[in-house]
Design a protein that fits this description.
The protein is about 35% helix and about 15% strand. The chain is of the alpha/beta class. It has two domains: about 150 residues, Alpha/Beta hydrolase fold, catalytic domain (Rossmann fold); about 55 residues, no CATH class. The chain has a six-stranded parallel beta sheet, with helices on both faces. Helix 1 packs across helix 2 and helix 3 packs antiparallel against helix 4. The longest helix has 20 residues.
Length: about 230
């Protein structure tokens, strides 16, 4: 079955109503000690195999970055993976510092200001093209702070040089109109031994909720069995 990792400020409920194949929507905000992505991935991965001997992995945005850490922790465990609109990591230390500062500012706002006002500004970021999330959260949960701290792109070590260690078949999916992440995806796939780049026409960053063919795409991944050569 598919193990689905949602994005920053998202929810396991985000995967509902999409008609996905058999899946587990993972709640990344459930109570557990905060940890960096690598530590979380190493601890979570064995729990999957206890329930599912032949799992597939799906990660969107922040969840896609988590999924990369999961694949690096145990690439032999997964039958396949779909990474959606994700970033393998900022290469420049100054960019990472700037991202840490920006995320700290967002976190301060979410903690102090009316939640819906800050969410409105969050969705106005160019990456989202002004579109709101399909199932926006109703409030800021304390556990969500980790997406601005431990799981911030600013705290993530760049994974570019490690992508070649992922032997799992990986489909990297981006929206046609999400030019920044589309470029990142193409480069990432060029480093993956069994990677293939896919692009959803007329979509931006939130591909699973913008593309009517998303559920069918996951089904085709299962039926293909091995990734096509780029």
């Amino acid at each position: 079955m598919w193990w689905c990792l949602h994005g920053a400020l998202g929810s396991y409920r985000d995967w509902g109503g999409l008609g996905l194949p058999r899946h587990v929507a993972v709640d990344l905000w459930q109570a557990h000690p905060a940890s960096d992505m690598e530590t979380w991935a190493a601890a979570w991965t064995p729990t999957v195999l206890e329930r599912d001997p032949a799992p597939y992995l799906l990660g969107y945005s922040m969840g896609g970055r988590l999924a990369l850490h999961v694949l690096l922790a145990a690439p032999e465990q997964w039958r396949g993976a779909v990474i959606v609109s994700a970033h393998p990591g900022l290469r420049d230390s100054r960019e990472r510092q700037a991202r840490r500062e920006a995320d700290a500012a967002w976190l301060a706002r979410f903690r102090k200001e009316p939640f819906l006002d800050v969410m409105h500004d969050w969705n106005k970021q160019p990456v989202f093209a002004g579109g709101g999330a399909r199932n926006p959260p109703e409030r800021f949960l304390p556990a969500m702070a980790r997406c601005f701290r431990e799981w911030s792109l600013g705290h993530q070590d760049p994974l570019w040089d490690q992508l070649g260690c992922i032997e799992t078949p990986v489909w990297w999916l981006c929206g046609e109109k999400d030019s920044k992440f589309a470029a990142l995806g193409r480069e990432a796939v060029s480093r993956l031994p069994r990677g293939h780049y896919e692009e959803a026409a007329q979509c931006r960053h939130r591909v699973p909720w913008e593309w009517d063919g998303f559920a069918g795409f996951l089904t085709s991944v299962e039926s293909t069995g091995s990734v096509r050569e780029s």
